[in-house]
Amino acid sequence: MMARETAPARWMDNAEWVDLVPAASQIDIRVGAVARLARCGGSSRWSEAIALAVAEARGLLDPRVRIAAVASDVSEALISKDSPVHAIAAGKSGWIYVATIGNALELRVSEHMRASRYLEAVLLDAAGSQAVESLADIAQAACGRAPANARFAPGYCGWRLGAQPALLRALSAEDLGVRVLPSNAMEPLKTTTGIVVAGVPESLRVGAAFCETCTAPGCARRIH
Ligand code: SF4
């Protein structure tokens, strides 16, 4: 267990956070990505339904992003040593972030489900996931890029989900209406948190050997 129980006050002292409130029109909800997430790619028969889901999603977004610069020892304290992200973050500049689209979209997904509109529910949920990914891209772009940066999130690359409470505390994410449940799931559901690390590109990669044994579902960065 990492030393997160004693560290939050210090993280808060060190953190200078920046809040970003992108317009819904700035959120890139790619039709192809929604189709892939909903497992209905490759067929034009779903095109109209996907377009409707993306349009509906745009009207339900309440995007919020918070980023905070952290010293490398803080990054290392947040990331367990058995994750390669720990070594990647060691000695480097880092930013922690939280990004959320709010809960209106997931409430609408529930409405579709209750009304047995399952296709609409699945596609809207996928559009929400893609919107959160786009928001995380916005958070990453707002962090320093000298000479490059990489984004990592709990649940991937061996970084345990148990880091989420400490990340959210350090970011005072309750201000944004974000909280973490005992299961480590977040509310709103369409929320992501993690760290952006700056460095030379070759120092920001997880090794292929770790990727080969990783079971993280749906990772687009898988090396092997
Ligand atoms: S497959 Fe590789 S890049 Fe993807 S989460 Fe696992 S270790 Fe990270």
Describe this structure in words.
This protein has one domain (3-213): NADH Oxidase (3-Layer(aba) Sandwich). Helix content is 39%, strand content 16%. The chain contains 9 helices and 7 strands; from the N terminus they run αβααβααβααβαβββα. It has a 5-stranded antiparallel sheet with strand order 1-2-3-7-4. It has a two-stranded antiparallel ribbon with strand order 5-6. A hairpin with a 5-residue loop joins strand 5 (179-180) and strand 6 (186-187). Helix 2 (31-37) crosses helix 7, helix 3 crosses helix 7 (118-142) and helix 6 (104-114) runs antiparallel to helix 7. The two termini are 30 Å apart. The structure holds iron/sulfur cluster. Iron/sulfur cluster binds next to helix 9. Residues 156-157, 206, 210-211, 214, 216, 219, 221-223 line the site of iron/sulfur cluster (SF4).
Keywords:
224 residues, alpha+beta, NADH Oxidase, two-stranded antiparallel sheet, 9 helices, 39% helix, 16% strand, globular, binds iron/sulfur cluster
Sum this structure up briefly:
The chain is α+β, with helices and mostly antiparallel strands and about 220 residues long. Helices cover about 40% and strands about 15% of the residues. β5 (about 180) and β6 form a beta hairpin.
Detail the topology: elements first, then pairings.
Layout: H1 8-14, E1 17-20, H2 31-37, H3 47-58, E2 64-70, H4 72-78, H5 84-89, E3 94-100, H6 104-114, H7 118-142, E4 148-152, H8 164-170, E5 179-180, E6 186-187, E7 191-199, H9 208-213
Antiparallel strand pairs: 1-2, 2-3, 3-7, 4-7, 5-6
Helix pairs in contact: 2-7, 3-7, 6-7
The structure holds iron/sulfur cluster.
